[in-house]
Amino acid sequence: SGSLFSQDEEEESEFRRFEERRRRRAAAVER
What we know:
94% helix; rod-shaped
């Protein structure tokens, strides 16, 4: 079960990274 939770956490971190990149790009375009 530990490995499963770790895997899920990794996926979430990757998704957050992608979301952050999109937000930064949007902010740059807004300028």
